[in-house]
Amino acid sequence: MTSDAQALVQQLIRPEIQALSAYHVPPAAGMIKLDAMENPFHLPEKLRDGVAEIAHGVALNRYPDASAAQLKVALRDAMKIPADSGVMLGNGSDELIQILAMAIARPGATILAIEPGFVMYRMIATFCGLRYVGVPLKEDLSLDVEATLAAIEREKPSLVFVAYPNNPTGNLFGADDIAAIIRATPGIVVVDEAYTPFAAGKSFMPRLAEFPNLVVMRTLSKLGLAALRLGYMAGAQALINELEKLRLPYNINSLTQAIATLVLKSSSALEAQAEIIVGERTRVFHELAGLAGVTVFRSQANFLLLRVPDARASFNALKDRQILVKCLHGAHPLLDNCLRVTIGTPAENDAFLNVLSEIL
Ligand SMILES: *Cc1c(COP(=O)(O)O)cnc(C)c1O
């Protein structure tokens, strides 16, 4: 039987899919979890009571509101989405990346992204049978504007992804440089603003009207609602109308709709937590900068990228002490011996700093 199934796989599954490894999520039970850019804080008690009440009232026997109308109103209001832009919701922004890729997937179509960047851009290009072109950052992890514009001219991508701030480097590229990329691109440019809550309000959302080919993508995951899986993107209404055709019915479940609507009406609670995280980011940055052998990079996100003498050894030693970070060694030549650490609670950050300074 097994060999029959193996033969079937060989025969049917595309070779580029067989060559992939599934997205790996390491077990984290009992660990201080600083690997996935989650907000380390619970919702305030009063909001949690509100969530409990809402969960009690949700009609679990019915399909969700297919258009998520109330949630969209709350999102437009809380996130200052321009009234004349279209909005689309995804089961995480990952799903929106996939929908964008499906929409442009035709023979020879290309996705271009900055590297090192968010890994799902490349993975989803592969899922959809698209060409993928990565443009490397400079050695200091700044945007190579000339190389990027040249690659756009050469490759004529249908879809360009720029994370603003970037993951895993944490830096925020220049707004003028991104505007130049948007103008030069014949296709759609997605400015992925997953980390905007930590970037002092830097956003392309207010500039949507300037660029017909701009899509601004966001998520509630890094802001404190990772469990709900809610991403959204805003862009020209005519474009969003087409993309909506690819959205599977009921992709945003009723609990997510109801809870996110409630929490967004009190979004100042999440913003206050983001402010604490930004303060801690500054503190952890300076502590790391003072450690011999560590290079830490400036970040506008809720994580820091650091280079250590031996990233694998540090990653394992941290893990042995129940602290889970992300080891990026081997992911890209520019990330040699790099670790990425999510900013946690003050106590979690202290634990990380103490263990790291001990093991170095
Ligand atoms: C985390 C992340 C996402 C994915 O967010 P989800 O909404 O949880 O799917 C998208 N883009 C970037 C750059 C990210 O870091």
Automatic annotation (TrEMBL):
HAMAP family: HisC_aminotrans_2
Keywords from the UniProt entry: Amino-acid biosynthesis, Aminotransferase, Histidine biosynthesis, Pyridoxal phosphate, Transferase
UniProt-listed InterPro entries: Aminotransferase_I/II_large, HisP_aminotrans, PyrdxlP-dep_Trfase, PyrdxlP-dep_Trfase_major, PyrdxlP-dep_Trfase_small
Keyword Ribonucleoprotein: no
Domain (Aminotransferase class I/classII large) ranges: 31-355
CDD domains named among the record's database cross-references: AAT_like
Subunit structure: Homodimer.
Protein name: Histidinol-phosphate aminotransferase
Cofactor(s) the protein needs: pyridoxal 5'-phosphate
Annotated metabolic or biological route of this protein: Amino-acid biosynthesis; L-histidine biosynthesis; L-histidine from 5-phospho-alpha-D-ribose 1-diphosphate: step 7/9
The protein's Enzyme Commission number: 2.6.1.9
Modified residues (N6-(pyridoxal phosphate)lysine): K222
Broadest EC class assigned to this enzyme: transferase
Lineage: Bacteria, Pseudomonadati, Pseudomonadota, Betaproteobacteria, Rhodocyclales
Organism: Viridibacterium curvum
Family recorded in the similarity comment: Belongs to the class-II pyridoxal-phosphate-dependent aminotransferase family. Histidinol-phosphate aminotransferase subfamily.
Catalytic activity: L-histidinol phosphate + 2-oxoglutarate = 3-(imidazol-4-yl)-2-oxopropyl phosphate + L-glutamate
SUPFAM superfamilies hit by this protein: PLP-dependent transferases (SSF53383)
